[in-house]
């Protein structure tokens, strides 16, 4: 007998937003996994670019959002205060003070119970709007609009363009926003175009509904600061780290960098980027499971602020390809105990023995226990020979969601766990591949909750997110 986390997945076969729960239980290592299904969106059509947040002041308070089927139809939002038994549902961002929301929505609760949302709007990508809820997600109000800048002396790389909707402004524009909270701050990072420079902005947080103004954008020093597809993490002392890759198009591989602002809201700013890894995954790397929109290395960060034995350890994950254009991609894991100055050797997290694709990973730390969890899209079950992992007789183009976790700071990991009950079905129509978009958070030491979507919608280039409160 040993303790193992069991995962309960909630989803809908009609491509609805869904929620998964992993409960810590003591069971034999060979015990099966229980998967239940709950449709949280309860509306027709597909939902995409999902996000989920758990309120650390009330773990029964869960908020999910997602883009709705069709262009610029706002966001679906669902809120529960009883752990998912009942939901208050609403469509936001079709008009009004939030603007007409197009995409790239991200959520993060802070320790006071404020819910923060970063997103992009239809009227142009010349700002990154920030919304706030102080009532557990029932209502959201726009509280800031971060204006991207073009750093002095920077030059635009050839063919520089955002990967989002074809919305342009006369000056600098933003894409790929990411949001993260710390002990007393909230930070947003994004890519500024046309310079393709990573920028970040932060604000102090003093209590529920009590916060300061967002700082002017800080740029990661160029030219090493040029890149895209980034992520943000805030450390236990208010320090801020961003990660990104330098190759923003093509399939020839990329360098993955991290950059640190050692005092966050203080005057230091970001230091010179440090190389984290060399990946064979480029900025538009086409694999059978994403032959229309492609994948990138999708580096992500999570910082341990639990106060436990690994407090201050920052974790990074990214995607590697075993031979350029082999489509054999893996999820890699590293950590640093010195604010990113040095990193552990990269280890592979997916434990399959197939040449198939694992991609778009996500990571989080349970800030109560210090446990770290990672999930990703996985085509291991699609051998092209039929069965539950293959829908069309074509290998490596149908996906499920799999995950793993570590209780010892990444020294060892549990055997991979299949999260999604169904398999994303393949299709011969370009740009019409179904896909899962899970997003996971851990509200307490005994539960992980995730949102996911599956179905046959045209897949936007999206991130998989996992986070723990």
Which key phrases capture this entry?
5-stranded mixed sheet, mainly beta, Neuraminidase, 5-stranded antiparallel sheet, globular, 32 strands, disordered N terminus, 469 residues, disordered C terminus
Helix and strand arrangement:
Layout lengths: L1 E8 L7 E11 L19 E8 L7 E7 L6 E6 L7 E5 L8 E9 L5 E7 L6 E6 L7 E6 L26 E9 L3 E9 L3 E11 L2 E2 L6 E2 L8 E7 L5 E6 L8 E8 L12 E6 L5 E3 L2 E6 L4 E4 L10 E8 L7 E8 L10 E2 L9 E8 L6 E7 L21 E7 L10 E2 L20 E6 L2 E7 L11 E2 L3
Parallel strand pairs: 30-32
Antiparallel strand pairs: 1-2, 2-31, 3-4, 4-5, 5-6, 7-8, 8-9, 9-10, 11-12, 12-13, 13-14, 13-15, 16-17, 17-18, 18-19, 20-21, 22-23, 23-24, 24-25, 26-27, 27-28, 28-29, 30-31
What does this structure look like?
This protein has no helices and 32 strands. The protein is mostly beta strands. The strands form eight sheets. It has a five-stranded mixed sheet with strand order 1-2-31-30-32, with no helix packed on it. Strand 16 (228-234) and strand 17 form a beta hairpin. The radius of gyration is 20 Å and the shape is globular.
